[in-house]
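Readers of this paper often ask what the protein records in our data store actually look like. Nothing more is needed to write down the fold, since each code stands for a local backbone conformation. Below, we set out a record of this kind in full and without editing:
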Amino acid sequence: MRCDARRYALTYNVPSWRYLGADDTNNADNTSTDDDTLATSKKILTSQEIALRLLRNQVWSAADLVSALAGSDAIYAIANCVAYYRAPRLQRAFVSAITGLFADNAGAPTDTEHVQNDMTVNISGAGYVTGVTDFSAEAFIDAVATMGDSADDLGIVMMHSVNYARAQKNNLIDFIPGSRGEVNIPTFLGRRVIRDDGMPVTSNVYNTWIFGSGAVHLGMGSPGCRLKYFVIRSKVLAQATRSFIAAGADYSSGR
């Protein structure tokens, strides 16, 4: 498979609109008076968000003889399993990307791009202390408080199953029924919980992340490789081997 991935940059800029008032120096509105002076119109400003491009491909093959012996088409079986194969790998890529985002925040800024560690509350300390360095509601609230009066915009918490178990032991996990009443959705202090053992763990220090809706975007596209399925025929065995290709470019950007 020849997909020219070299022509794709690892990151690229995505233009977006800023909120109205982003250019206000004193957050003041125009004040109406009785004079005939016309109000000066303003413009909506734009900004550039940095998006990360991830290129992934995989190839599976199966001989026709295998399908004949199995009683069903192996290639169709492979195609039906691609989504299940891809989902956990997308989540793993997401964890890796956000890990890099927090690592950048922990580093010393080169300019005024950010305040060092202003996105993190670290309770790990020099070593484990029972009841002090454990995952707790108090530490969670301290982390949410870093958002100030926008704390209510944080509606999702992603944690390792070790922290999830700790929260359960403290009776802090609530369950709300889904819209159809068929599943129960776990929540922690009103935030929906995503449990993933792929969350970063270093020396028994478990990361927990809190997000707002729309904080991360994902888009998908084709990297230019149009061949999805082909047949290789062997003259020696008089046997056909078919291959199925899954390829794509994932575009993710953090707001």
